[in-house]
Amino acid sequence: MVIDDDREFLDEISKMLQLSGYETIAISESRKALKKIQSLKPDVILLDLRMDGVSGFKIADTLSKNSKLKNIPIVGITGYYTEKEHKTYMTICGIAECLIKPFNPLDVIAAIESAVKLRK
């Protein structure tokens, strides 16, 4: 699942993941994300940390407190925050990895694989 309020970026990353063999679900409205996550229980979530509506940090924090959803690996995506500044908060919220935009498509695959391994 990819959650990002930038629709152009969302389309690009979804296509890239599909070409890499991943089935993707793209969500551009952060307020709808939690309901979709609860109903679909994705294998991994790529989550923009700074969005209009509900922030990615809030979504990740909510998931980390839900016994049925807390083990879903989350890869944070941001063009605003730096990992160094927010590493502690990312860890508290259950964000396993973080990608800083712009990033190489291969970095996305590596972050997904790393996040999934950390949750096993």
Structure description:
49% of the residues lie in helices and 16% in strands. A 5-stranded parallel beta sheet has the order 2-1-3-4-5. The longest helix is centred in the C-terminal third of the chain and has 15 residues. The chain is globular, with a radius of gyration of 13 Å.
Q: What's the helix and strand layout?
A:
Blueprint: E1 2-3, H1 7-19, E2 26-27, H2 30-40, E3 45-48, H3 56-64, E4 74-78, H4 83-93, E5 95-100, H5 105-119
Parallel strand pairs: 1-2, 1-3, 3-4, 4-5
Outline:
The protein is α/β, with parallel strands linked by helices.
Kindly state the percentage of residues in helix: 40-55%
Question: What characteristic shape results from the CA principal axes?
Answer: globular
Cα end-to-end separation: 18 Å
Treating each run of at least 4 consecutive H or I residues as one helix, how many helices? 5
Low-confidence stretches: none
Task: Assign the structural class, choosing from mainly alpha, mainly beta, alpha/beta, alpha+beta, or little secondary structure.
Answer: alpha/beta
Which terms would index this structure?
single chain; alpha/beta; 5-stranded parallel beta sheet; globular
